[in-house]
Amino acid sequence: MTEATAAQDDRDLSVTGxxxxxLQFEPAGTRVRVPPxxxxxxxxxxxxxxxxxxxxxxxxxxxxxxxxxxGTAPVTPLDARAFSPDELRDGWxxxxxxxxxxxxxxTVPPLVTRPKAAxxxxxxxxxxxxxxxxxxxxxxxxDLSDQRTDLERVLDAVDDLELRADLHALxxxxxxxxxxxxxxxxxIVDDVLIxxxxxxxxxxxxxxxxxxxxxxxxATLLDLTxxxxxxxxxxxxxxxPHGADVITxxxxxxxxxAKLGLLSGLAxxxxxxxxxxxxGQAGVDPADVLEIAVAGNATMTHLALGIDPEPLGVxxxxxxxxxxxxxxxxxxxLAVHPRARAVMFPSxxxxxxxxxxxxxxxxxxxxxxxxxxxxxxxxxCEIVLGNRDWLVGTAAPAGPAFEGAAIRCGMRASxxxxxxxxxxxxxxxxxxxGDAPPAGLCGSGLVDAVAELVRIGLLxxxxxxxxxxxxxxxxxxxxxxxxxxxxxxxxxxHWQGEPGDVARSVYLSQRDVRELxxxxxxxxxxxxxxxxEADLAPGDIQQVLLAGSFGSYLSPASAIRLGLVPRxxxxxxxxxxxxxxxxxxxxxxxxxxxxxxLALLEEVRYVELSDRADFNDRFVGxxxxxx
Amino acid sequence: MTEATAAQDDRDLSVTGxxxxxLQFEPAGTRVRVPPxxxxxxxxxxxxxxxxxxxxxxxxxxxxxxxxxxGTAPVTPLDARAFSPDELRDGWxxxxxxxxxxxxxxTVPPLVTRPKAAxxxxxxxxxxxxxxxxxxxxxxxxDLSDQRTDLERVLDAVDDLELRADLHALxxxxxxxxxxxxxxxxxIVDDVLIxxxxxxxxxxxxxxxxxxxxxxxxATLLDLTxxxxxxxxxxxxxxxPHGADVITxxxxxxxxxAKLGLLSGLAxxxxxxxxxxxxGQAGVDPADVLEIAVAGNATMTHLALGIDPEPLGVxxxxxxxxxxxxxxxxxxxLAVHPRARAVMFPSxxxxxxxxxxxxxxxxxxxxxxxxxxxxxxxxxCEIVLGNRDWLVGTAAPAGPAFEGAAIRCGMRASxxxxxxxxxxxxxxxxxxxGDAPPAGLCGSGLVDAVAELVRIGLLxxxxxxxxxxxxxxxxxxxxxxxxxxxxxxxxxxHWQGEPGDVARSVYLSQRDVRELxxxxxxxxxxxxxxxxEADLAPGDIQQVLLAGSFGSYLSPASAIRLGLVPRxxxxxxxxxxxxxxxxxxxxxxxxxxxxxxLALLEEVRYVELSDRADFNDRFVGxxxxxx
Lengths: 627, 627
Hints:
The structure is a homodimer of 627-residue chains. Chain A is an alpha/beta fold. Helix content of chain A is 31%, strand content 25%.
């Protein structure tokens, strides 16, 4: 840690606002700050400090014993049963019963039953506590002196959990118990017994995390007992033919209500095919998939669930709901376990959807003491600023430039797309996806091309190509590429066909540059307004996370050069990867992280840009590139 | 009330055992006793004392104000917000927050919003508080300054309830709100928003109570806002061709597991057709049926839900569960509101099923201070003894005699069945169902015939027909009817065909008498053992309730004559009617009564007869008729 960031950290600790309690966990020495009212157990869990527990903090297993060294924690009735009077006097408490209100220093004994943990998200260590679990049971047979029902017999054997059964489990329980000679596996999701299976099937507990993108859908099959990914697959959304972006798809439904069923069906078909693919790859029986998690923007989530997205598409942009009720994978048309749950990520707003909630979770935005700027770049660009004490977010209408849609030689990031462009005054160098001949320009290539042209000086700060005469002086090796196509000035990135055949070349037009300027101005206006809301300067941002399928591929240097992100040392701008998918994984691996996603709804203050009188003015001010 | 019963009542009040608190409600002067821990509000509700409330005792409406006159009730945080310090000092409290521990005398103010009540069950006054309800809402339109989601907007308008929505409601909410110009009806079952309907549909809240009998299924369509029955229909169970009784049907499934699907489908088809019939009769849209209740024995309930009943049919007689999870009417194949709930009555035991739980609820067995004996007579006979302080129950295998199955001229209680028989030494009188010529003998006719023959003296107390020579002396007008058919002695009830053609007559055979003796001995052994368990004599029973489709038609005098019920003044033996169906109605009309049915599971102590070493011995002792 540099001196500068250490000083920054100290400053963060002194931030005022809603009160926090300081918890120090020994012997690790880890110090964390949480809102009063959080239990010691949760605070430890949230910060990756492992405390023994088999009940998950529900006060039933009495394993989460800790010793309070300084500070006070009242003795609860459960403590009085778990400890001797001497132990209580020495500060021993059950961590899950300690509701923090004082600063505490706590010693955590070494683990007896070691909980497994997995690293997911942006370097997040997640203690495995999936909602889906199995228990192998060897039960006694009933007789006239023990006429407990089949369900009572099973539930009594899982007495550390307070379970209820669903009808599906009851329809199977009698036959399975008897055919399996009373040796069965209880299949549990959350507090529901969803199935009883013959024999010991505890090694087969799987889940699928879906990143339900507008363009691309990614599925990751996870072994929930170990946190290991078993298979990954992705495909273009089958909704693509009905519109490249959410607005087009919403419009389609507005014009023809019958399209709702069609689009909903296509979303579900995409999820279904991916499910088949990841299960096939890993040799996993789909019936062993007990839970899925879906991180998608509000429109995609509405459509996948068969909910009319029309109110999302027109002012005042209203969602059906922010939090989703209990949804089954079957409600999404998936043929996994018939009672598998579907965790649908909640939305912060109509344009800050479940994908962003998942991304913020994966990025640990609500846990990190550093002030960070999270930017998910796409047609709609979601921006969140803050640290563990406060978060403020907005959505900026960036338009389709990054998807390549309004760009003359634009294309999606697939084989043949130029994704990296570097220039010197004497020439240029292209990196093309798939080792194919260049066929077009994807988003990151577009950003690079414009950024390099600005850096070299062939584009002036206002975004205009300089005069051809000046170009020969500024960049002799590139000047020949600056030409015209019809009325429009263009810069040729790659010649193909006859030399001088501009029409068949891969080029960047003056209008393309304008499109990118509009996109970047919208984004920059967004984070500038958030900084202003937080009363911070750009230099106060300690890290910029570029997220999303486009953002993660973007060159930080180019992003800074264009003013897409605040002017900061390039090392502070990092790619966060597919954070939506990572968040979905975290929700499957940990009930606590899942709760964290819900908590984000309360923690992020949403700033609506579209009703700000100063938006257009500020937008125009952000159009030029930084000089 | 006679002096004897008044004394009896006083004695009951002094019964020791689990402690009770005494509550006296003024100005009505009603005195009730409840277990400590019951809230004042519930105690009042359970005993038909109306206290103002719109939230149903959840502490949100602050309407259930009462004044404590004597005894103490601590001030809760909610009381402190609902009352001034002066009022608190004067004993004002919210009845739903008063957890009783002391004896209390309480004044209940007159009602402001008069709750409606309905009389159902055995003279039970039930305050209407159905789980299914509707609320008409006129909502404000969203704008950029009020971007609450559609769901939040609806839930905020129903702020006296803490609701969650289900996916079905979310799939409709957006379109309905906008098409209905924000004037909608929220459709609620329990704490779930199951639908949003355009306009004001609050006058259409219906439910169907099903008495799911082994032989006959009865459906009652209720208006849940008024408690009024709108239509009633009944039909023979479509399972009939696969066995007249539950054991035959269980055996069918044991021999051929494919029969489970068949029988389950037939049960559901029966319910479905009845639903169509009652809705058609009343002109009610099935989609306005928001909840159904099903009271059936354990086997019928298992079968209707598609659960293998095999473990119910063989020792040690194990149910899948006693309490049912959330079941939808759709799980039973019913095309009512797609999210309508199905309240499945819980079973006390494999042979004391949901029909009995419903019956006990309707009879108020858990509320009445009198010690009563509840007997549901059928192939399997359920018997419960007790009062509001204690209940003990059992099931006795009475066999099929009452259904007419093992009786030579037996038939079901349909047109042509002899249902009443009276005799003098000079002749006999028959009442036949449907004004048809006598075709056979139904259960009540069988009981009457045997009872009358015993009374007249043509059957001796051991159950044998007396010698033909003696008959001419004992009953000169009847002696000609005592004859033989083949080897067997018979008594002809009705000649048809040629005079003297015994084979074509309607008669009662010696073997028929034996069948009835076996049935009555099983039942009498049952209640005798229960009396012994309770340390009571037959004379301590203040009322005998004859329940079930057969029991309700039985002549109390004949039942006493045969020893089917204890020897008591005939006025103490009353017909309770179709208590299972009444209980199902009560569950639909009142959430409190529904909770009462669940509480019965804890309150009734079950005595298993089949593992008692003394059963056979006592059974033999009960074979003779009382002399």
